Amino acid sequence: LPALRAGDERVARRTAGLAVWAGRLLDLVFPPRCAGCRRPGSDLCAACREEIHWQSGPACPACGRPGPATLCSACQRAPLPLDGVRSAVEFAGPVRRAVHLLKYRGRRRLAPVLAGLMIDAWPQRPLPVDLLVPVPLHPSREAARGYNQAAELARALAPALNLPCEPRALVRRRVTRPQVELSAHERRANVSDAFAADVALAGGRRVLLVDDVCTTGATLGACAQALRAAGSAGVWAYTLARAAWDPERDTTGDVLTEPV
Ligand SMILES: [Zn+2]
Ligand SMILES: [Zn+2]
To answer: Which-ligand-closest: CA of 98?
Structure first.
């Protein structure tokens, strides 16, 4: 029924347009509030920006975990199938609250604000890549959330890095349990084989995976395996934030658990 489909598309476009206008109107009526402290005036105020811990110190060259600039104990035991992981900031304080709002409260416009932190940190440790690929959500989860926060970050990041962004290069083939509260071993099993990469889009290219938070790197590792199987020439990862992880105790103590 092509006529009906065309009509549906028109309605969908009009609805999306209305949502955009409603959002703009709300922004006019209600000034932006700081994601960190809720004070009105901006999406992330100067005081909260001061609180941000940049990940600029020494770190494991493979997984990016802060510490001595040598291979960490976790990477010695089970190396990630990645060329390396970098993160802009620590997953704490205002950044943690902002990520929570972006992922679970529909505050989509925080994506370019948070991508701004990634843009600021990039020149310190740039990576030799050709293409940005966000870590995909399963389509059902993306539909529930309305967007993929990793794709939002990657889209904002791409022009600043002067690199293309290709969200279709990687798909999530099955719904996985939220990684929060799983051990490192469980995390790897949970996302193993969950992703598939497009040979035409990712083959022969050096990919920069983009995600919001890296904890053990299990999700990034599973994505990298799919990209390597599709012939990618290299796979690096760049996340907004790095969550604390104790490889000896195998825990984050993370309580940010609110899966969609
Ligand atoms: Zn603030
Ligand atoms: Zn490591």
So the answer is: 1
